[in-house]
Structures are given as structure tokens and as C-alpha cells.
Amino acid sequence: MNISDERRAGAEQISAALAALAAEPAADPEKRHEEPREEHRLHLLGSLLAKTELEITAATRLSEEDEIEDVLETSLGWHEQLGGDPDVAVNVLTNRLQRTALQVCEPEDEDVPPGREAAFAAVMTAVYALSAQLHAERGDREGTRHALSGAEEALIDVLHGMHDLRVAIGDAPAQEDGADS
Predict the structure, then answer these.
(1) 151 closest CA partner among 124, 116, 118
(2) Residue 50 pLDDT more than 80?
């Protein structure tokens, strides 16, 4: 499968898939009778992705002994759709990680709890690490350095967030104001 595949699903097809899954997004009252247009495509794809993730979550057993089989089965279906293209797989993973990071720390969150902040940084560490590897494979030393710097900064943020959470639950002393960060 090529990312720029001309057989990509259009807004009408995505909307039909959502309707078939009884997962149509709530329509804007002013546009209720309007047909889906291509400018709605990404929003519709996000809705379809959410529905798919909810279906997988509902179908996944939550016992430690059986859960891995469910994850492996969904991964098998995922790999079959990608067609074995490692570049596409990394691109899909990077997009997924970026969406996850945004979902962990919603932009409107004023005061992010330290555990969520650490989780956001952990996801971004993975994004930067994947990016660094891609740049390295392409022989882009400067791009690799830039991505590695981002990964290192994000990893430091993970450690700070975990420490702040330990402080919050009383397992670690707070840093003094004059202490180096």
C-alpha cells in the first residue's frame, strides 16, 4: 500500500462506513442535510479511527493471560493492510504517537498533572527516536542530531514528571528553589 494511493477513501465512502457502524459524527445543525465533502475527510477519518479503536477496546479481553492474543490478532490485521512497507509502517506509527501525545495532554489543559506530563514526554521521546532512526537511515546527520536532541529533552521531561509525581504522593522530597534542574 502506498500512502499516496489513488484508491484512498473519499469523504462519501468514509461517511458511509461510519453510517454502517452506527457511528456518524454529530452533524452541525446548519449543515444537517449537506453531503460529506472532501474538506470533511480528515474529520471523518478521525471519527472512523475512534470508532475502530473503541471496537478493538471493547473486543479485547482484559485478562493478562488472554489479552496478548487479542493484541496480536489486531496487529496481524494492521500488518496485512500495510502490505509490508516498513516506511509506511513507521509513518503510521509516528502519526499514531503524535495523536496519542495530543490526547494525553489536551491543548486546553492549563495545569497538567505530572503523571500525564511524563506520559506526554514519553510518547514524544518515541516520536523523536523514530525520527532520528529514519534520518540516520537516509544519511541525514543534521536531521538525526536534531531528532536526537528532541528525544533527549523529552526523556529529561519524563524523568522530571515522574519525580514531580513522586513528590506529589510524598515518596520524594521537593527540589529546593536554588537546586539545579
Answers:
(1) 124
(2) yes
